Amino acid sequence: MYVPMKKILDHAAENNYAVIAANGIDLEMVRALITAADAKKAPLIIIIGGLQMARLANPELLVPVVKKLAGETASPIALCLDHGRDFSKAAYAVRHGFSSIMIDASSKSIDENVALTRKVVDLCHPLGISVEGELGHVGIAASLDGRDESLFTQPEQAAWFAQTTEVDCLAIAAGTAHGKYPAGYIPRINFDLIKRVKDATHNMPIALHGSSDSGDENIIKAVQAGINKINVATDLQMACKTGIQNALVKNPDVDYLTLMQHAEFACRSLLKHWIDLSGSAGQGALIEPSYNLASLLGDFDLSIIGE
User: Fold this and answer.
1) Which of 43, 164, 190, 198 is most exposed, with the fewest beta carbons within 10 Å of its own?
2) How far apart are CA 307 and CA 300, in angstroms?
3) Domains of the chain
């Protein structure tokens, strides 16, 4: 079931769990992600970044794959542009069938952030497309940006930002960062900050980016504190790579088809674990399907034609 992200995240916020936003950049990853969600009866958000679209995940090719596979499961599946940096990239994703857009103007001034985010909302909402914004700035794991509290989201400002832009979800900075952390490093997530942002924004869906390699206990506590969307990219990509490496160790002459199957299997297995951490297993069956037939009937003047 292919749906906007808002339908999934509103249910998550109302029922105190999180949904995995999993990076899928080719056929094998997308199929692994959706089959894992189907097996767990979990809602799922597939995310694709702008640079990934340019290098590999061509929307003209991949969006139809996502829609086809999503249509084969009762689990709600959304497709979201991840960290769109400008309006043209957001519009490009809208034009090619994404159900949701994450616009990231967090590195700009607050006024520029609000203006760009609002512009994307005005484009997307009339089309039934969900929008996520970012306030605070989720930096780079290798640089340990997650320790820089000056980048963290401020609860009062988050409430104002959410009201002004009318986003459907807000990505916050609370101690995580994008990419792979230095060996042995586990981020310190500010769970109290998450709770305060949640309260200030009146329980709107909030997202944690840079969740890969953050530690299972941290993720569970973040969900308990109020996170409703957990972005996972690096861990899934590493799982695919490890699956291929393990297959080559066992048989250096293994064929390419088998290698890709090993990558897909490893990705599927890891996502099932993340779904369990998020509390979303089984929740997909509780989200009502979207029906569009009534909206396609047209308006009738019953005073003339009767019922």
Assistant:
1) 164
2) 9
3) 5-298 (3.20.20.70)
